[in-house]
Amino acid sequence: MASATHDGDLGHCGERARPAASGVGAGLKRLARRLSDALESQRQREVDRSIARLLAQSGGRLTDSVEREIMRKVFLSGRSPP
Predict the structure, then answer these.
(1) What is the pLDDT of residues 42-71, one digit of tens each?
(2) Are 19 and 25 in contact (CB under 8 A)?
(3) How would DSSP label each residue in 5-73?
(4) Residue 32, pLDDT score
(5) 3-state secondary structure (DSSP) of residue 78
(6) What SS3 state is found at 74?
C-alpha cells in the first residue's frame, strides 16, 4: 500500500522559524556544546593515559611495536594522531 502527501502538508525545512538567538534555543545549544567538549576532553585524557601506560611498560622506549600499538589505540578512539 502506498500513500502520497501534498507539499502543503509538510512544508519545507526553510520555512521553519529559527529559535531566538538569546532564548532557550541558544542556551540549549551552549549546554550541548559544553557537554560535547567535556566528553571529547575526557576521551582525549583516556587516550593520553593509555599512551603513557604503554610507554611506561616499554621502559620509556618508543619501538616500532609500541608505536603501532599507540596508533591503533588512537585510531580506535576516533581521535586524530598527535
Answers:
(1) 988 988 898 899 899 999 888 999 999 888
(2) yes
(3) --HHHH--GGGSPPPPTTSHHHHHHHHHHHHHHHHHHHHHHHHHHHHHHHHHHTTT---HHHHHHHHHH
(4) 94
(5) coil
(6) helix
Helix (H, G, I), strand (E, B), or coil: what is residue 3? coil
What b-and-e string marks burial along 52-70, b requiring 16 or more CB atoms within 10 Å of the CB?
eebeeeeeeeeeeebeebb
CA geometry: angle 32, 48, 40, nearest 5 deg: 10
pLDDT digits 0-9 by tens, 5-43: 555 555 555 556 655 556 888 889 999 999 999 999 998
What grid cell was written down for 24?
532557550
Residue type, 82: P
pTM over 0.85: no
Closest CA to 70 of 15, 46, 55: 55
